Amino acid sequence: MDVRARWQRVDTEHRVLVWGRTVTRLLALVGLVATIAASMVGLGVVLGNALFWGLVTSVAGWLTAAWRDVAALDDRFR
Fold first, then answer.
1. In this predicted model, what pLDDT tens digit does every residue of 56-71 receive, in sequence order?
2. Of 19, 34, 42, 59, whose CB count within 10 A is highest?
3. What is the CA angle 35-41-43, rounded to 5?
4. Cα angle 16-22-28, degrees, rounded to a multiple of 5
5. DSSP states of 4-69 as a string?
6. Tell me, what's the pLDDT at 53?
7. Maximum distance among all alpha carbons in the chain?
């Protein structure tokens, strides 16, 4: 792999990592706002809403962390 292609790949990996972190933070914020808004309806709705947004946010965070780990492993074996 030539140097230019390598740097383009590094830039792309970084952009994907930043995008994943941003999406995770936005999902956490949306989940918090949605849970606060659902608190006016009742406890069951709040728990269901918090569980849903918590799961979605944790999956996004897990995928972001997995991407970071795979990119780091890929760099080690070159």
1. 999 999 999 888 887 7
2. 34
3. 70
4. 135
5. HHHHHHHHHHHHHHHHHHHHHHHHHHHHHHHHHHHTTT-HHHHHHHHHHHHHHHHHHHHHHHHHHH
6. 95
7. 59
> pLDDT tens-digit profile of 40-56?
998 999 999 999 999 99
Residue 71 amino acid letter: A
20 contacts 53 by C-beta, under 8 angstroms: no
- What contacts 23, CB < 8 A, 6 or more positions away? 60, 64
Euclidean distance between CA atoms 44 and 2, whole angstroms: 57
- What's the token pair of residue 66? 């997995």
Q: In percent, how much of the chain has pLDDT > 90?
A: 54
